[in-house]
Amino acid sequence: MASTSRQSYSRVLQNDGAFNNEKANQSEESLGFSRETEVVAKFPQNRTRQYIYDMLNKIKFPFKNVESIVERRGGMEDFTCQTKNQTKQLAAALECHSDVQFARLVRSDYTYVKTHWIPGRFPNQKIVAAIERHHGKVYEHRILKDRYGIAAGRRLYRLKTDDLKQHPIAATVRMDEMVFLVEYSEQPVQCLLCKGFRHLRYDCPSAVTTPTISEKTSTATITISEQRKDSSMEEQQNNQQPDEMIPEDSMNTSDIELDRYSKQLEDELFASTPTRNTSKR
Q: How far is C-alpha 255 from the geometric centre of its chain's CA atoms?
């Protein structure tokens, strides 16, 4: 296996053309900076350059059809082929590989939609009917299997890119009380509030504006301070309020006579009380 990898690697250096300046210049003159012959694929992040070459050998894709392989972040790889047909063949071959999370054309009229978490006996026609009813015609569909020929719960559907732009598919789809994961190239984000696309719930136009925590805190503080201020002012007014003086005009005659009678009794009692003689005998 190691000798085969070394031979394939040396063959790439000799016949691939990526290190041949003359062939590279010719491709630039004929294609310019067009990305119609590029494929983007996602691999495991701990991959090596030799791992990519071994995979191309495994899927039986000729090295002579590949102009360049550019490594990007997050396990992404850019493949540039000679023609559009070769690009489509490479994308389809990479999609069927178990280690490839997804592979797509950079510029294409069609988009591959991959679904996950699907039971093996779930009817594929039911998924196709649901996609065509809401999102567009399905031109191709197949069940993806691993290297042992066992279904891995993933299925692939090919739709027109324009149909998916007009009627996008959410990242999670419910069907028969089950949840399926859906992913494809340039899949827009979905709002969790209104279930619309291309915006998040923080920017949702249908969301009702609610005060923030700081606004709520400041409003509550102002309300409490006003209540305390009103209560303190009321207590201050009660403390400063003088006793009401009853005018004499408001008193009736019975009250006046009772007052005079009480004074007369006091005088009589004082007069009848004997005085003690404090002088010495």
A: 85
